[in-house]
Each structure stands twice: as structure tokens, then as C-alpha cells.
Specification:
alpha/beta, Quinone Oxidoreductase, Chain A, domain 1, Rossmann fold, 7-stranded mixed beta sheet, 6-stranded parallel beta sheet, 18 strands, about 25% helix, globular
């Protein structure tokens, strides 16, 4: 059995989002059907338009209301408000260690061909398979199907447009600081890139009590927003060398550098800004997926440098998303400052607004 839904489809690789009626499978064992109300728009969604076979339905920062549950579902019920996050198997060694971001099936379950865990396609259109189950959800739609494991029950008083982005980008930035790097009060950090992920990292660093929070970004407005959210200093990377500017603020260098630009040269420059026994963490996806950056072996060795790749901020969504919501409600994680809301029907205009820098974090909403 299927239900008719509306989805924003990509009909050809790299093409625009087009709203059309499609058919979504009913929830099977361990699955949840969500009426989607909020959808964060992420750079990954834009890039994936070229990666999956068309037609496809993307979207991976969904929030909404549980509309139905399949057999064996026990953690959520019809009517619950939920965030929908990334998929994981729940069975591998990393999942058993509460590290689902490093699930051995992460690639397969989140962007591996648009299939469910059982190898079927949840969405069809006119009898044709549609690549979906993107990040275990494909939430650019009126309804989405997800495994119970990647659905997180949330406080119904929190707006859907705030909940949605917590499923990926914002938990990645905050989690990088709080989980992956485990920054401590009194320490220092350089954050390269003041997009949603970088600004979430700023808010997390302020909450953790770091005394020096330096943000580097090309855009003066983004730098200003970073200062409002907790950055103690900002850098225009066109005004001089990154390492030199950082050391002009903190001569010994920073304890941590966190990159979310994915630009190899920025990562190389950040290494020169790090203090002995410091750590470079990075989440930015490069334009060239085969990109590398040079690491000077002797300087890295004698300074005890740690280089740390990060996925999803080392987050376990079941516990970390509710924690971020607690911070938001306490005024300590004001993610609403980043958000510009657009009606779901205006998804293409929203894509253009985000690409033009007119919005920091776009969230599509359905009433």
C-alpha cells in the first residue's frame, strides 16, 4: 500500500526542485511516517542533486508530527513532535558504542543510491522508482518515512523551524565543539567559516566557556553575527595570512581549529595557527571529493598536532538533539537568530536566496 504525498523532486541531475505528487510506502516494521512541517536546507542537499540517480527526493533535516507507525515501533507514537536525523544500523560496533555517526553502514544508509535498509525504494511516481530515503528520510516532502532509530521525540512547544536544522548541520557544528573536540572552559578555538555549522560551533564554544573564540569568514555580515553570538574576535582572511592574524590575537596559537569550509588551503593555513598539542578538526565537504591538503610532517610531529575528521559532530541524535533544545529554551543556543523561513512551495527561491548569501540558514515550512 502507498499514500499520495507532495514532494520536491529533482527530475534530472543538477536540475531544479519541482513539486509533484508521488506515492510513498506505508511504514513497515520499525518505521515511522512523519507529516513534515519544517525542513532545513543544507549545502549537502544542493550538492546531492548531482549525485543520486534522477528522479530523486532529497532533504535531510526534517521535523514534524508522527502520522503513523509500523509494527515494532515503541519510542514514538502518533501525534508526537519529532526531529528526523541521519540513519544508522544500530547493530555495528560503533552504533553499540553510541557512536552512530561512524556506523559502518553510514554511507549506504544515508546517501547510497536512494534505497531503504531493505533495498527497496520508498517513493514511486507513476510506477517509476524515485531515489529517496536520503539520509534515511527524504524530507523535502509533505510526508517522509524513517526508521524509528533516526526519529527523535521533542518538546512540542519548540517551533518546527527550529527543530528541523538540529537533525544535521547545527548538531554537527555544536557537536564538533562539545563532543568531537570536547573543548574545555578557558581554552581557545579558531573557527573557519561562519555558515550555519560554524555559527553553531560559536554558540557551543560560548556555552562551553572558551575564553578565545576566533572566527574567520569572507563576509563582514557573517563576522558581525558571529560576534553577536559569542565570538571574541573575527578575521577577514583577505586582510593577511590566517596564522599571522590568529597569532596577533593569541601569540601561542589556539588549542583547536575547526574548519567547515572544505577548502584545502584554509586547512593548511589553519595548521599554522594551532598551539602545541592542539587539534585540527574538520567537517567541510570540498568541491572536489578527491581533494587533499598538505600536512608538514616534522612541524606536526614536534608540536604533537592531532588531526581529526568529524562526522555529524560525533552526535547520538537521541540524546544530543534534546540537549540542544534544552540549551535553546534556556537562551544559550539561539539558533533562531540564523533562520530565514520560506514556504515549502518556494523551495527554488529559497535555494537561490541561500546561494546569494541573503539567508544564513534557510528552513522550509509547511502550515
Amino acid at each position: 500500500m502507498t499514500i499520495d504525498i507532495t514532494a520536491a523532486c529533482i527530475l534530472e541531475p543538477g536540475g531544479p526542485f519541482t513539486l509533484r505528487e508521488v506515492q510513498l510506502a506505508e511504514p513497515g516494521p520499525g518505521e515511522v511516517l512523519i507529516e513534515i512541517r519544517g525542513m532545513g536546507l543544507c549545502h549537502t542537499d544542493i550538492a546531492a542533486r548531482f549525485g543520486l540517480p534522477a528522479p530523486m527526493v532529497l532533504g535531510h533535516e526534517g521535523s514534524g508530527v508522527v502520522a503513523a507507525v509500523g509494527p515494532e515501533v515503541s519510542r514514538v507514537a502518533v501525534g508526537d513532535h519529532v526531529a528526523v536525523s541521519f540513519a544508522s544500523c544500530g547493530e555495528c560496533a560503533q552504533c553499540r558504542r553510541d557512536q552512530p555517526a561512524y556506523c559502518v553502514r553510514f554511507a549506504e544508509l544515508n546517501y547510497g543510491g536512494g534505497l531503504r535498509a531493505d533495498g527497496t525504494t520508498p517513493i514511486q511516481a507513476d510506477g517509476q522508482n524515485v531515489a529517496s530515503a536520503f539520509f534515511g528520510q527524504s524530507s523535502f516532502a509533505s510526508h517522509a518515512l524513517a526508521a524509528e532509530r533516526n526519529v527523535v521525540k521533542v518538546d512540542p512547544s519548540v517551533p518546527f523551524e527550529v527543530v528541523g536544522p538540529l537533525g544535521c548541520g547545527l548538531q554537527t557544528g555544536a557537536g564538533a565543539v562539545m563532543n568531537s573536540l570536547d573543548c574545555r572552559p578557558g581554552e581557545s578555538i579558531l573557527i573557519t567559516g561562519a555558515g550555519p555549522v560554524g555559527l553553531a560551533a560559536v554558540m557551543a564554544a560560548k556555552e562551553r566557556g572558551l575564553t578565545t573564540i576566533i572566527v574567520s569568514d569572507l563576509d563582514a555580515q557573517r563576522r558581525g553575527l558571529a560576534e553577536e553570538l559569542g565570538a571574541t574576535a573575527t578575521i577577514d582572511p583577505t586582510a593577511g595570512g590566517l596564522a599571522e592574524q590568529v597569532r596577533g590575537i593569541i601569540p601561542d596559537g589556539v588549542d583547536y581549529a575547526f574548519d567547515n569550509t572544505g577548502v584545502p588551503q584554509v586547512l593548511q593555513d589553519a595548521v599554522g595557527a594551532i598551539a602545541p598539542l592542539g587539534t585540527l578538526g574538520f567537517v567541510g565537504v570540498p568541491q572536489d571529493m578527491a581533494a587533499t591538503f598538505e600536512l608538514p610532517i616534522v612541524p606536526a610531529m614536534v608540536t604533537g598536532l592531532t588531526v581529526r575528521g568529524i562526522t555529524e559532530g560525533d552526535s547520538d541524535p537521541a540524546t544530543f538533539i534534546p540537549y540542544l533544545i534544552e540549551l535553546y529554551r534556556a537562551g544559550k543556543f539561539p539558533v533562531d537568530r540564523l533562520i530565514s523561513s520560506f514556504p515549502f512551495e518556494e523551495i527554488e527561491q529559497a535555494v537561490k536566496a541561500q546561494a546569494a548569501g541573503e539567508a544564513v540558514k534557510v528552513v522550509l515550512v509547511r502550515s
